[in-house]
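An instance follows:
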Amino acid sequence: MDDPRARPAVESPYKGRTGISRIVHAFFNSLAGLADAWKHESAFRQEVALAAVLLPVAAWVDVPTAERCLLFATVLLVIVVELLNSGVEAAIDRIGFDRHDLSRRAKDFGSAAVLVALLMLALVWGAIVGPKLGPLL
């Protein structure tokens, strides 16, 4: 017997592409997402500016390859988490601008995730690059 609470499966009309066509469209959708984040999110622009400084430093500093990868990864992780946070905020705002405890909580969770990613960046950079700066200071 069918569950009366079950809803019929609804397929998205945007899920019809397959193969190379899907990959190409996904790529251009991703570029559009980056452009929208740049246009509408000041935190994203600030973190890209931070990346523009830190990524060349990560390429330049004399560290083993694994540590260089950690430096790059923590910078990129901050950008990834910021994009996800911006997505959560946009979805909440799409629902409505009225104040609701669950909306606040969802936005605060996203913000906390960005904070944790930034703390991780600071810890990794401090542990790897910090000792290299000692002789310079």
The radius of gyration is 20 Å. The first helix runs from residue 19 to 40. The domain at 41-130 is CATH 1.10.287.3610 (Helix Hairpins). The chain has a mean pLDDT of 91.
